[in-house]
Amino acid sequence: MKLIFYFVSANVLVLGISFALLYWQSSKTLLEEIGDHSESLLVNSAQNTARLMEWALEFSFSSSNDSTLKVYALSDQYSDFETFEVWSRLMDIKNANPAIDSVYLINDYTNTVVDSRLGLNDAAAFYDQDIIERLRDPVTANHSVLIPRTLSLPLTGNKPKEVTTIIRFYEKGSSISAFVMNVDTDNLMTLLQNNSNYANRSVTVLNDRDETVYSSTSLNREQIAELRNHGSKGESGWKLFQPRTQGEQLMVYASASIKGIQDWTFIETIPKSVILGKITVLRNTSLFLFFALFVASLTVIVLISKRVYSPIQELISRVMRQHQAEKPGQGHSANELDYLSDVFIAQRNQINELTEQWRLNKFLGRERFLRDFLGETYHSAEEIGSQFLEWGIDLPKDQLSVAIFRIDLFSEFSETYSEKDRRLLRFAMSNIIQESLQSSKHKLQTVDMGDDHVAVVLSAPLSEEYAKKLQVSQQLIEQYLSVGTTAAWGRTLPSLTDMHEIYMETYELTQERFRFGHRALIVKAWLPDAPGELYHLPVNKERQIAQALPKGNADTVLEVIRSAVGKLRGMPYFECKMSLITLFMDIRRLMQEHSGQPLPSSWGLTSIEKQIIQQETMENVVPWIEALVTKTLEDIVAARSLSKNVALIEQADRFIEEQLTDPNLSAKMLADHLGLSVNYFRSLYKAETNQSITDKISEKRLSFICQELLASDSPIEPIVQNSGFSSLNTFYSIFKKVYGMTPAQYRKKHRNGDTIENI
């Protein structure tokens, strides 16, 4: 019954706390959900509105580039037909999208404005004097893109309309001739207006200068400043805030960038009372359902407790009877829970004893001793013998040798598998070696030495029969583990204290796989005495390489290298490695003498030695050498080719200067002079200078004409004809495109005291 009482009490407490938290958090949670949802809707609407504004911006800029409009805006005279044609084009631009309210074309030279509504107007009498004043004021003219303002419409009793104005200057700084497009702000903000249906909801859009682009309600400066202080620029989110003259409101804000030119902040405010109006009803309904659930849960708890109590009592009785049978004569506590606790403590003590025994397992101790035995120096044979007895190692104290099984391509294996997997692999290798060699009458011990190898301490004398058994172990490792190994068998141990030295010699012996290859069996006693001299590249071979390098003849260089490498195959590892390094340094010296720039870091001494070690075998070294030499020769040839192209470009530029006044000067004339095909020369010049030949000739001729305009009072036409331009129309078009003014305006401006630009 205690169990039932505690269980029911705990459930009652949990249910009470849960109800209190639910009742307290309901409004807050629902408000957060509404805030997050409103933020998502506002962000989408803001992005879509920004895209509409970006479309209008791109459309205005593309429309303003119309050649007819540009020529009309910069002309000092025009005909009625030209005016009608311009007005027709403005009407086409306005009708392209219902969001466009009106389009103007302002001509500062004639002080006229062509309007899509009224046609041709005198600038002084034009109904939109606000835009004329903005264009004439240098301060406001700098902010000529996305200007929010109120426009009084003509012919409608000066009815105002909110618009966003886009201005495109044709001669900024020289005149106010410009293309003006007014976008209907209410039409543009349709997506924001339909964003939600909350009553008393308001939407405001501010630009990065805190100007009101759009507002569904009338706001004064203080209200705008209050909204800006709560809505962070460049961010989106929502918060509750208390305006000075209103109740608490939920403010949702989002930001959008218009082509990186201007940032708009979209702010939506909703009264909190509107959002939470129906939540109170929901909470009261939840309260009723909660109490119904509480009563049902209490009933179920009582029924379950009755069903559970009896089985638990029976379980306790069985445990007590079993414990008394195992330990007769021992008393027990009258409290059932205390009794079960005593049983649990006794079982835990037994588990701790078993765990301690496992930690002291002789296998782990023996493995640790053998690893130290091979990897470190022991002081005396007596110390080693005592350790043999302590760990139960059954090996003779003389005539021992060491064999090492080393994993091939271990660097690739270690990049793929973790240390845990590598440890499991070495454990499996040790088991395979133990199983394959223990059938022999000779005794042995396998040792996991870490990294890439497993050592075997052997008592077998040198024989071909036992060497074949080592080869069988290699084959079984590859068969079961898919890992190739190189095995090395060292010399016989004279005494136990020399075991570390023999182990190190045998490990160095595995390096001989460099000449014998992977999966080899290397026996110290069967290796012939190695020559001690290093290989040096003969003088005649150096001469062959020196003659082949200027020609970029990689085949000759590679043939000399292959011949030299073939003579190194019979050398021991150390002499072979040092000879390879010496060969590389000789080739590097010869390449450096015939290269105009330093060789890459891959030819450094440290890099070369590291790569030779990583290749592991001579078979892997040869293709690596060939690839490195071939790539370096290709780079040298490419560098020489690049310098040749630079000389051709300089020669072409000199010819352009000499023949600048010749009307026939062209890409074909240049190509014939240089002895190249015209298509190849065009591509070469474009790739090297990032400029076409035609543009280069025009640039030089314009520079010559500008100097003549300032140095003499000669008419413009003779100067143009003497410069090589074949057409006056072509010259005037290019000149105005480059300098933004006519030649006469250029001469007048720079003779009035302005600094002559370096063209």
Overall radius of gyration: 47 Å
Low-confidence stretches: 754-759
Structural class: alpha+beta
Distance between the termini: 104 Å
Net shape: flat
Widest beta sheet: strand line-up: 3-2-1-6-5-4
Q: Please outline the major beta sheet.
A: 6 strands, antiparallel
Tell me what portion of residues adopts beta-strand conformation.
5-15%
Query: What's the oligomerization state?
Result: single chain
- Individual helix count: 29
Residue share in helix? 55-70%
Could you walk me through the main structural features you see in this protein, from its secondary elements to its overall organization?
This protein has 759 residues and is an alpha+beta fold. Strands 3-2-1-6-5-4 form a six-stranded antiparallel beta sheet. α20 packs antiparallel against α21 (573-593) and α21 packs across α22 (605-615). The model is unreliable at 754-759 (pLDDT under 50).
Outline:
This protein is of the alpha+beta class and 759 residues long.
Topology:
Blueprint: H1 2-64, H2 67-74, H3 80-95, E1 100-107, E2 112-115, E3 119-122, H4 129-136, H5 138-141, E4 147-152, E5 160-169, E6 178-184, H6 185-188, H7 190-193, E7 202-207, E8 212-215, H8 221-230, E9 237-241, E10 249-258, E11 262-271, H9 272-275, H10 279-326, H11 336-359, H12 362-375, H13 381-391, E12 401-407, H14 410-416, H15 419-437, E13 444-448, E14 453-458, H16 464-481, E15 485-489, H17 499-509, H18 513-516, E16 521-523, H19 539-548, H20 554-568, H21 573-593, H22 605-615, H23 618-658, H24 667-674, H25 678-689, H26 693-711, H27 716-723, H28 728-739, H29 743-751
Helix pairs in contact: 1-10, 10-11, 15-16, 19-20, 20-21, 20-23, 21-22, 26-27
